[in-house]
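Thread: quick sanity check before group meeting

JM: Hey all, I'm pulling together slides for Thursday and realized we never actually wrote out the predicted structure for the chain we discussed last week. Dropping the sequence here so it's in one place. If anyone has concerns about the input, flag it before I start.
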Amino acid sequence: MPYFYAVNQLPKPKKPKRTVEQKQQENLAKGLPKNYGLPWAETDAQQVIEKYQANVAIQDIASDMARKSSSIVSLLKKHDIISEQQVISMGIRF
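JM (edit): ok, ran it. Output follows.
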């Protein structure tokens, strides 16, 4: 058995879990929106849907929610508010 195989089988130390605040600070330090990659709270998801239905621009919703536009589009698609065809016509990549 090769040595590298045995080494790869050793348990890896677990990284300590970061708090939401720590993740938000890391995002800001990387130049990302504050809530990038964080799970959606149900109230936030509902706010996005309501704003979209009130004809608020996706970029404005993203700015208000500290997310990327692609995250807003994904959420709307997940909740069947917009279709795949609408996403394509918007020209937003996600």
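AS: nice. The two ends are 43 Å apart (CA to CA). The chain has a mean pLDDT of 89.
JM: adding both to the slides.
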